[in-house]
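User: Hey, quick favor. My workstation is busy. Could you predict this chain's structure for me?
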Amino acid sequence: MKKFLAILLAGAMVLSLAACGSSDSGSTDTGAADAGSAAADTDISAPAATDGSSINVCIASEPDTIDPALNSAVDGATLIIHLFSGLAKWEQTASGALEIAPDCAEELVDGVENADGSVTYTYTLREGLIWSDGEPLTASDFVFAWNRAAGPELSGDYNYMFEIVDGYAEMWETDESGEEFVNPDAVLNVEAPDDRTLVVTIENAVPYWNELLAFPTYFPVREDVVADESWATSPSTFVCNGAYTMASWDHNSLITLAKNENYLDAADITMDTINFYLSDDANNMLTNFENGDWQFIDDIPTNEMSRVQTQYPDEYVVGGQMGTYYVIWNTATDILPAGSGLTGAEAEAAREEIRNAISLLFDRNYIVEEIGQAGQLPASSFVALGLLDANGIDQFYENAGHSDEYVGYYDTSADAMQSNFDEAIATLSQYYTYDEASGQFTDFPMSLTYLYNTSEGHKAIGEYLQAALAGVGITMQLENQEWATFLNTRKEGDYDIARNGWLGDYNDPISFLDMWTTNSGNNDAQFGRGDHASVANYSMDLTPYGYDITVENGTWAETYDVLIATIKSCTDNDARYAMMHIAEDLLMQTGCICPLYYYTDPYMVDSSVQGFFASPLGYKYFMYCTIG
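Assistant: No problem, here it is.
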């Protein structure tokens, strides 16, 4: 007990020095993933808005990309939903609820089921759709954009979002070596019989199809525009079809959007100009908000949270958000003790046990209460709070794991912290030498490096995790990178252990699970890649759900990839949800995913702003704002 208390005190000492910035308790990567409160360190003094025609906001730093097919972050998605329009969109009803509505499509039609179980949708585009440069927008633009986003040539992070569309599997089919695509001319089963008709066939009915149509990866781009690979980096080459055009981009400082007069619904857009200031400095954000320079900020310094809540009760908001903040391990990080002699599946099983034990050392209640301070809840599963299970009543996370004593994969209650600590020490002692007198492991084989993006909140969490590990003799260094660099470093697997966050892309648990297939662009853990590709350590039995699929000690591709594909083809609701729980079991078995808390969405919006709304997916909507 004394050892555990000492670790808590060490964490408290670190935080008293370091927790002076953003908790970034909103999304910070995508899924919409989380947006990242990252950017260059900027000192920006913005002119205050003088009338209802412009608004100054700060959601994050320099975006990694605002190409709809390449973006995988929430900050980029917020910009994209103002610049582009898809077949569908999210809109707020008079009651404040959010719903899917037609956008470029005249209506969101019901599909027609074919004899083979596939479903065909025929959409009619609204008359008069125009690109920002005055060129007509046609159904062929959607055909091109979807094939571009789905295909191996671009290999965007979200290509798998088209996995449900007929033809996707053929696009990605490879030879036995896995090196060559065997159908280089394959395309999605989507056609444009004429300029205003779009016909698409999906493999089978899914409950979230209309939500996919509102997701940025499904937005149109024009072939001649994107032929310039740098098209999405400059206003001079940026052509879009949404409510706004890009007026200017002062990189690492400011993106200005201007109302698009070619937008078909321009009359409904009440905000003429949106100035997106780019910063990852929460203190700078708060200063500009309190000065009246910025009317919206998406991050608040941790050490100012209590004052802000008291001083600005009408302007400080904590919204709901469907996401999870977590620590991610790289499967290539070898943490086995020197000379263990373990190889193959036996070695990976040991790594899994070690990673899961280390996860038990972290006090999630401390993190949310002392660092987050915005109503976050300790997370005991990866699939986030807010997603329902098969019966439409229970939350999916409430049925995660296999314990009768607690919800999820481990007990996150404050009372369980000591027993978690004791279990972690007992497990780790099977692999490393534990000195009872000092309470330290004396031969952990390496110094870990924890990678995080610029944010005082991320730094504070990293320093707490560092202190918790140091308390038992495990050394972990901290490495900070700016947002765009961080995203790509993590994506390339050039790290040991890193912060991560994921927001659901649509209201279904699969949006937290399909990202971990071998070829997914969001598979930052590198499951099924490199040495992990040959590890045969995973088992599943899908026969109870009507499938003749049983795998004992299979690889990630033979189990998880097959399982996700089966889930996406399943039309039995109960079986589909049961198999999604199996998928999360496999994911959590690896120990590579260490959930810390379920997100909330704290932000500040000036009391003069009317018409703003945010979605649980992390997007912020400014196009209908007015300033009184």
